[in-house]
Model the fold of this input.
Amino acid sequence: MRGIAILGSTGSIGKQAIEVISLHPDRFFVTALTAHRNAALLFEQVRLLRPKMAALTGEKAEVPKDLSFCDFRFGPGALEEVARECEGKDILAAVVGVAGLKAVMAARKAGKRVLLANKETLVAGGEMVMQACQADEEGPTLLPVDSEHSAIFQCLQGAGPNKYKKILLTASGGPFRTWEKERIQKATVEEALGHPTWNMGAKITVDSASMFNKALEIIEAKWLFEADPSQIQVVVHPQSIVHSAVQFQDGAVIAQMGAPDMKVPILYAITYPERLFAGAKELDLFALGKLTFEAPDLEKFPSIQMAYDALHAGGAAACVLNAANEEAAGAFLQGRIPFGKIYEIVDAALQKHGHLPARSLQDIDEADALARQAARAHM
Done:
């Protein structure tokens, strides 16, 4: 049996991970669970799964007496403690935000395999993380959980020694794909959270609406697959059936397809290189009718170009982009800014701090803090 710690167990990815792990109790057990503030759900999960460790990274809460078998940790440093000290060989990093970076680094120092669903880890600290995640005698020490990057990884499994020419990173286009630019600028929170094909957490759904989600994935793909930015092409695919594809030198394209269900990439990362039953809906090609593909509109969604610009700038530019977007998306969800301001705020932070270095965790912390400060000041 393989032990798995779930960082961010009360979020969308964490809850689905528990679902697929529960389908195979003879193969996997949960060693630790963490949440930010949802103490009630975390306590419920601990009762069900009986891990030896758990953590709340937000406010401290009184632990019920019947959970005395579990070692609870509290505070911002609890993520790193769990990643470092928990049993088992796998860490599923499913927390939202740059907070996941230090936990991932702690997990790797402890020799654990990272199942990465936290985009910000690679966006903020890509070079550092990939140096810490070199494959060992057991295989990859970092496996992508995002549906797009899992799809690319799966496509490359069948390529052998052949090098890809281009990564085709698909995007649903979000709820505003067909809207006019002026209408997008004034979109409401309810409209932004109305994703047409995926059921996700609030922040990532807003990112999908602004296409900052895809901007972050461009940066992730650069690090995960050692890609030059010119090799990464975003393709808008509204049906979300082709999760991404890879093109080779001879012109052949290998694509990974499936119904839009995160249980498949989550379980594939957990079971790699095996494939087990995920409880996901099976794809019916006859019912689809047709699949469509189109280029992203960079005028309506400037986030895409910002990602390429950040990669070309290097240093902490991608970290600044991510931090400013976190602040702006959060402010939009709270009703403090209109949707269109998100792009303006991120661009302002990049103009001010996009030149900063990213040679260490301290550099990244400083760039992150300055970007957030600049974003809040611009608001």
User: Anything to note?
Assistant: The longest strand covers residues 28-35. The chain has 16 helices and eleven strands. The CA atoms of residues 353 and 370 lie 7 Å apart. The mean pLDDT is 95.
